[in-house]
Amino acid sequence: MKYDWILFDLDNTLMDFSNASHKAFHRLLESHGIRHAEELYPVYKQVNFEIWKDFEKGKIDASTLKAKRFHDFFMKIGVKGIDSKESNDTYVNHVIEYSTMLEGSLELLESLKGRVKLAIITNGLKEAQRPRIKRLNIDHYFDVIVVSDEIGVAKPQKGFFDFVMNECGFPEKQKTLVVGDSLNSDIKGGLDYGLPTCWCNLFGQENKGGLKPDFEINHLSQLHSFIEE
Ligand SMILES: [Mg+2]
């Protein structure tokens, strides 16, 4: 193995998030009798994206994020009288329920287990990430699991990677590979910290920001080709 550690992002890298979130959103709106969930989903996604951006920059904390995203969304679509914190909890519970592993991820973890140390490094809410990891029974693959919400700092910030490296026992940077789908959090975070990076571009995104990951894959099975000696 060319690496001692592989640090995996979770959502849309190993675990499906997009599909689970889509279904969870539909269920939430249905429970409030709000129609046209399909058209409203992009509106929610945009609101959520902006709030997560602030969270990743450290401008807001996780409890603000949890209270604010459905508050802002309901404001935007002109719906009043719904508890936004409760909506967040309902949505999160549905995401847990609908989460599945991405194609090829279990095979990959199975083939890597015992040959290289594995970690999950995820920007997520603790009440979502821990139960999803448990429900899909993947915790036994990982030596270290770091959830941003639990430590109060998120990728791509240096403090997040400081925490991760400490948890991993300070491995050699060049032997610690970051694998993730997000250019702004996973790839930027890894590059800024001096770690080799692999962009997991499973859904054919365009690389607009000029960041240069060391590797790019469009299926998890391709990871083998450059991590094996
Ligand atoms: Mg991700």
Description:
About 50% of the residues lie in helices and about 10% in strands. By secondary structure, it is α/β, with parallel strands linked by helices. The protein folds into two domains: about 140 residues, Rossmann fold (3-Layer(aba) Sandwich); about 80 residues, DNA polymerase, domain 1 (Orthogonal Bundle), CATH 1.10.150. Strands 3-2-1-4-5-6 form a six-stranded parallel beta sheet, with helices on both faces. Helix 6 links the parallel strand 2 and strand 3. The radius of gyration is 18 Å and the shape is globular. Magnesium ion binds next to loops.
Q: Give the low-confidence spans.
A: none
The helix/strand series, from N terminus to C terminus, equals EHHHHHEHEHHEHEEH
Strand content: 5-15%
Rg over CA atoms, rounded to whole Å, is 18 Å
Tally of individual helices: 10
Class derived from helix and strand content: alpha/beta
Helical content stands at: 40-55%
Q: At CATH's second level, what is the architecture of the largest domain?
A: 3-Layer(aba) Sandwich
Shape: globular
Largest sheet: 6 strands, parallel
The CATH homologous superfamily of the largest domain corresponds to HAD superfamily/HAD-like
